[in-house]
Known about the structure:
Distance between the termini: 23 Å
Largest sheet: none
CATH superfamily: Amino acid/polyamine transporter I
CATH class: Mainly Alpha
CATH topology: Amino acid/polyamine transporter I
Number of domains: 1
Helix content: 55-70%
Mean pLDDT: 80
Shape: globular
Strand content: under 5%
Low-confidence stretches: none
Amino acid sequence: MNFRIKSLDDTLANAERKSLKRSLGAFQLTMMGVGAIIGTGIFVLTAEAAQKAGPGMMLSFIIAGFVCAVAALCYAELASMVPVSGSAYTYSYAVMGEMIAWVVGWALVLEYAVAGGAVSVGWSNYFVGLMDRSLGIDIPEALTKGPFAGGIMNVPAAAIALLVTWLLVIGTRESASVNAVLVIIKVAALSVFVVLTVPMINGDNFQPFAPNGFWDTTGLGIAGAAASIFFAYIGFDAVSTAAEETTNPQRNIPIGLIGSLGICTVFYLVVAAGVIGSIGAQPVLNDVGMAVAPGSAEFAAICAQPQHAQALACSGEPLAFALDMLGWEKVSQVIGLAAFLALPSVILMMLFGQTRIFFVMARDGLLPGADTLTKVHPKFNTPYVVTLITGIAVTAFAAFFPVGVLADIANSGTLFAFLAVSIGVLVLRVREPNRPRPFKTPAVWVVGPLSLLGCGFLFFSLPLATQLTFLYWLIAGLVIYFAYGYWKSPLAKPRA
């Protein structure tokens, strides 16, 4: 097999021929990262973590955050060396070859497009609840759920996906400005939550700390919760996909990556402590005293029982639920409103990352219609064709498919991309040790392997069905690559 590699010099030169407008600074990148990270994970998955790990979710957040931290340090070095859109796809192309790059780019579709569709559906649930509680408007289920969930079409989910697509077409700076406002709203909401819950912490609520143990083949335990909670962190690497639109990327990309991850990790740990310590977070059990996997039919049946009505694990809005339990009903409504306002910023960053990766893959000649896909809007200076195509696809996905296990599927694609980056930073240290590195990963021969092992550990802590789904997805991607990209790539043609 010929692993065709595009050199870093060729990668940078190709980007200059069809480049995007540079308009983003360190603050905007950090806000983009926070906007992409804080969202469905902390507002929704806290309940799932409670069912899987109980109070042990605190350790799950630390494990997932640590894996992201070491991966972020690897990302920062490569992003500062190659300030070009495309994230892990671009890095893999220059380091490990075209076929691996295609597989990584294909895996990133699971991270961005699947997660974008999932968050759109999550936003729809908040929207429906808000309409019911605030205005007394009961939207028929046929219009708020896809056919697999007993409805016809999730109209609100489709609407928010289309709105975000339109915003991205208008312009990157405009999108970033709206995102910054949404970030402030949700950070303020989480701050209020922390202020109200931390003083109510009761140490007894942390016992037993790990009711389901550390690891289980069904996805329960601290490791299983960490693999799911990882969804609460994905998105920080979207900052690196904006490298081509960043001023002074060698300085600002590392700041955006590490700064956003640091802010979010602190928030997650404090919020988790507030939830657990104030109302408790023990998993609900079946008739034989065993915990069951969240999202299953058995779990839904258990949560429908009256004795579990006050269980955190059964709540669809865990943070608002916790405040309700503490008697802060009005504030809980505000938290729900903040989540409703905040989730579009996550959708925005998911679509942003996906469009930029498709843009670069088309520019590299691996997608059909490359000349059309790489068109930049004459007024807005955005890759509007690929943005519209991606937006329509995510809209259809959000309209007709349920959330289900999408978070775990998105995690599988993300972890694979992180694995590629972890290998890439080490390979380049050996292959091109003298190439300028504006940001150098500290203790790279410790951090790199830790990132590699951590990502592998979380991947194999996902449910087996998710791992198999990812395998089938990769096989489909390879079929597409060898049917088109392998033959049409510029690297397939001998140089004059």
